[in-house]
Each structure stands twice: as C-alpha cells, then as structure tokens.
Design goal:
219 residues, 15 strands, mainly beta
Length: 219
C-alpha cells in the first residue's frame, strides 16, 4: 500500500459529502478512508476525554452521513451493540483499539426484529451471541468496517488514551445493546459529548422511566 495523503478534517468531510452525489457503497468510502491520514491538529476541537466513559464528539451530520471522533481513556469500552443495518467505517487515529464481532444465534422474541426502520425492538432476556472474530485497530493501520451483514460488535481500549474517527451511513440515534451476563438486550439511546467542538449540556436526571422501558447505566 502506498503512503497515505495528509488531509485536514474539513477537507475530509467535504470528500465524504461528495459521495452523496452517487451510490454510497462500503468499498468506495473505505478506499478513500484508507488513502488518507487526517491531521491531528485539525481534530483538536473534537478530541475531548471523560474519565468515566468514552466520548462521542460530533464533527458533521446530515441525512446520509454522520462523522465523529470517539475518545477513549484506558479500559473504556462500548457495550456489545448493533448498527441498525448501517454501513460504518472506523479510522484508528491514536492508540490501539480491540474489536470483537458477534453473531446472533437466537432469542426468545424473534418477532421483535420485524419492525420497519429498526434492527429490532429489543427486550429479550434470553439472547444468544457467539464471538466470530477478534481484531486489533492500530493508529495509521487498516480502516475497520461494519456492514449490513456484520453489525454486532464491541470496541474497547487497552492501555493508553485513544482516538478513533467514525463515519456512519445513515446516521442513527439508538441501537440495540446486549448485557452479556444477563443475556438481556435493550434499546440504547445515543448522545453526543460535544457537537462541533462545543460541550453538550447534560440534562437533569429524567423522571422514572415507564415500566416498559429499561434504563441501563453507561457501563
């Protein structure tokens, strides 16, 4: 593979937007992401860490694309989660991340999957997942992808602060997440730590959720 072309985040966003003029495919965006190295300096406004949880920092969003940094302190990890049938690309910018892909084997509410516009309603207490792949994502290395056939995974950070750049098509505001110990799945609503370099104001603690909703702490 040839050397990567250094590019600022604004030019990167402009190029990603240009894919909207045609058919957006996993491989066309992947080839572009693999060919560039985004400059650290241009990402400075979007590199924000939190001691308790990894942070999602919005850079750009429209109807077709969502671009963000995720910043990870050592030991931070996502829940095992789905991607609503999206296409996803992850560029490891700093540090090293681990990736575990899972295959869905079954649950006690398969009918919850037959929903327009969502991967699943969630709410099963007997989900079965199997690990199918484990991989490492290293800064400057291979761009990782998730596609419509392979959409259940977990990301985790090992031993030093890490930054990754994520591109999603289409944007999404919730996903199905899995509690692996309890074999439980639930729909998780997603929020940003910052938008366009500005910290989001955290809402006050919401009132008790309705009985048919499950609230899971961000662990």
């Amino acid at each position: 593979m040839g050397s990567k072309h250094l590019i600022g985040i604004d030019d990167f966003v402009a190029k990603i937007r240009s894919f909207e003029q045609g058919l957006i495919t996993r491989d066309s965006v992947l080839d572009f992401c693999d060919s560039v190295q985004i400059s650290d300096a241009s990402l400075t406004p979007y590199v924000l860490f939190d001691e308790k949880f990894y942070t999602r920092n919005l850079i750009y969003r429209d109807a077709l694309f969502e671009i963000m940094t995720i910043c990870w302190q050592p030991g931070q990890k996502t829940a095992v989660h789905t991607h609503n049938g999206q296409l996803c690309w992850m560029i490891p910018q700093r540090g090293n991340l681990g990736l575990v892909d899972y295959k869905w084997l079954g649950c006690d509410h398969p009918e919850h999957q037959n929903v327009v516009g969502l991967d699943c309603l969630a709410g099963s207490d007997h989900t079965k997942l199997e690990v199918v792949r484990e991989a490492e994502a290293c800064a400057g290395g291979t761009v990782m992808t998730a596609d419509k056939l392979q959409t259940i995974h977990r990301l985790y950070n090992h031993d030093e602060p890490a930054v990754s750049i994520h591109i999603y098509s289409r944007p999404f505001d919730s996903c199905v997440a899995f509690d692996m110990e309890k074999q439980h799945c639930y729909r998780r609503h997603l929020a940003y730590f910052s938008k366009h370099g500005v910290l989001e104001i955290k809402p006050e603690t919401p009132p008790a959720a309705a009985s048919n909703l499950v609230t899971i702490s961000a662990r």
